Fold:
Amino acid sequence: MNHTFKANQPIGIFDSGIGGLTVARAITKLLPNEQIIYFGDTAHMPYGEKSAEAIKYYSVKIAEFLKFKNCKMIVIACNTASAAGYKAVVKSTGMRDLVVNVVDPAVEYVVKNHYRQKVGVIATKRTISSNVYAKRIESLDPVSDVVQLATPLLAPMIEEGFYNNKISQTIINSYLSKSKLSKIDALILGCTHYPLIKGEIQKFYGKSVEVIDSSEIVALHVKQVLEKHQLLNETKSSRFSLSKKSQFFVSDYTQSFEETSKIFFDEKVKLKQFNIWEE
Ligand code: DGL
Structure:
């Protein structure tokens, strides 16, 4: 394999829906010169309820689409797809360490900052059943105590625009009150939708628990990988607004996606509907 990527090519980012926008935002904040091509697979959301095989299939299709769109890097901005589809994406695209998943940078952070502590993970059913966080943390820190809880209502709730209100706080509190999560030192938000409810989660715990939102950790990792491969875009393009220089695709148009995108980027992003499944 001998790809010759250039620094001015875009970064491809995908998720099942709006969750990956938390990662896209962190990347554009840290690296404002980068151009982004985002794909939200809203037609198949929620991934958390699908089989590993289905998620693998969707992930490979989307990654190939992003590669076809000339992306120099692919960020799997979805924990569920990172757990089920990362290896398959690396294999099908041949892009090796230019494929970034959201699990490994978070694991590295936890091992460094919460060594030998009790760490909770909340995520979709598929991510929890894959055991990906527990396995990877325990392989680096055998004395750690990792407790995991599937919180399947949260991603669809957020995708539907329910956050920062009474309903979301009630659902969040009922999940976080489970005895499994008692006395934790840190909580990993193991789904890229959850940074949107970080405030509500932190409110439940007060200051006693570090709530780990991996979007900024992943953005930093993206920067390091691009630097290592001399692919960081140094050309200033700040005079172009995000909506001019980046592109946002969804496999099915949803109004909530468009609404929520405003919160992220202070401007409405123009959504292009693209059904890659019929190609
Ligand atoms: N945002 C995704 C994740 O990080 C998945 C949400 C879903 O589609 O179930 O796991």
Residues 15-17, 19, 45-48, 78-80, 124, 127, 155, 191-193 surround D-glutamic acid (CB under 6 Å). The mean pLDDT is 93.
